[in-house]
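Researcher: Next entry in the queue.
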Amino acid sequence: MDQISVSPETISKAKRLALAFQSVFGQSSRRSSDQRLVLEHIRKCSGQDGPIFVVDKEGRFDPLRAAHIDGARTQYLIIERQLELARRDDEQKPKPKAKTQ
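Model: Structure for this entry, 101 residues:
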C-alpha cells in the first residue's frame, strides 16, 4: 500500500488553522461566556439538535430544505472538528516535569 507524503508545511498550516479556531471558539472547559453564547447560537442555527428531513404540512419531505439543513450542520461540524484537532495537539505536547527537591 502506498503511503501519502504530507509536507511539514501542510501539517503546520493545519495545526495553525486548528489553533486559530481554538483561539476564536475556545475549548469546552475554558470558554468565555461570549464564546459559549456564540457557539451555542451556531449550534442552534445549524439545526444540529434536530432532524435533517422535516415533513411539510402535506406529509412530504423537502429535499432542498434537507440539503440546506445538512449544509448548515456541516459548518458547525467543521468548527467542532477543528477544536478536536487543537485538543489533540495540546494533549500531544510534552508536559513539563515537576521539579524534585
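Model: Residues 7 and 82 are 19 Å apart (CA to CA).
Researcher: Noted, moving on.
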